[in-house]
Amino acid sequence: xxxxxxxxxxxxxxxxxxxxxxxxxxxxxxxxxxxxxxxxxxxxxxxxxxxxxxxxxxxxxxxxxxxxxxxxxxxxxxxxxxxxxxxxxxxxxxxxxxxxxxxxxxxxxxxxxxxxxxxxxxxxxxxxxxxxxxxxxxxxxxxxxxxxxxxxxxxxxxxxxxxxxxxxxxxxxxxxxxxxxxxxxxxxxxxxxxxxxxxxxxxxxxxxxxxxxxxxxxxxxxxxxxxxxxxxxxxxxxxxxxxxxxxxxxxxxxxxxxxxxxxxxxxxxxxxxxxxxxxxxxxxxxxxxxxxxxxxxxxxxxxxxxxxxxxxxxxxxxxxxxxxxxxxxxxxxxxxxxxxxxxxxxxxxxxxxxxxxxxxxxxxxxxxxxxxxxxxxxxxxxxxxxxxxxxxxx
Length: 394
Fold this sequence. Notes:
The protein is an alpha/beta fold. 25% of the residues lie in helices and 11% in strands. The chain folds into 2 domains: 3-85, no CATH class; 112-386, Metallo-beta-lactamase, Chain A (4-Layer Sandwich). The protein is built from 10 helices and 12 strands. The chain has a 6-stranded mixed sheet, covered by helices on one side. A 4-stranded parallel sheet has the order 3-4-5-6. Strand 1 and strand 2 (116-117) form a beta hairpin. Helix 2 (31-39) crosses helix 3 and helix 8 crosses helix 9. It is globular. The chain starts with a helix and ends in a 5-residue tail after the last helix.
């Protein structure tokens, strides 16, 4: 795909991006993926998503059916999912489908619609997938060890070096939010509870978490941790779920609100811009700290990812509070430069009306005291570029 075609794809208004983003690098696909990109057919909004994908598929030759390589890739992933559900494959990272009482509770949710959960506001046709909250210490956001989006910045501290935790919070089941090796390591901590969205507990239980340590919440449901008194509430978000080709929206996705007697924190998980944020402010606000996703965005993904500009609108709907941008700087999951969200927010900081917190990875910060804004990512990006060139020249 030449540069002009790629630029046209990036600027196309609405609908799906007319390219396959290389989920491993964030750049246009090469080699086999290029052939897949050329042969992929138009997006079916009802079709299941690729595991962990946040990029969209569409054909440069609109209306043509998928080619043989596209069909082959889809067939391989579908067969892998079938074998995983039948217990005939080591792909445990797929997780498990809910059954029994768990599924009955899911079906009783007002968000349940036939075979999966739904958003309050429908996602536009043509979109695909694309304490510690959503901890991912693994090297890839992928079901595979050797393929998939690879983290380009190391975790600032080893998982085993984390201090004692009150709970592990998981907003939804996408691979860049629910990570098998991370969950297994955290599960070693005696009695540590996992609080998550309705249905996600099936994955955790399949990975060895005892059921009594799993709390699943529907929207507006709350759970109070008995030791700390911290109240965790699941709230609406605008997204989707799935870890294989055949479990689209089989589990719920949520934002999360944490409230103690003195403070309240909002964590968006993954979400598009939704009017539900005003309702969240009315029912659960005000917030001392607002954590909103800002990375892995594109204009055509506005229903499922915020990006920096919509994050500012969401921040206003939520009633303000110190703003900590999240979901950027670790995996390259979109066409934009990894530090673009940070630059956009830095330019808007003066009109925000609240502290903008952009600490380095692993840097402690006190939200109510603020933090001097330093564009640390510029030096990080320059060092990465020098490393790719194999030189230490500035």
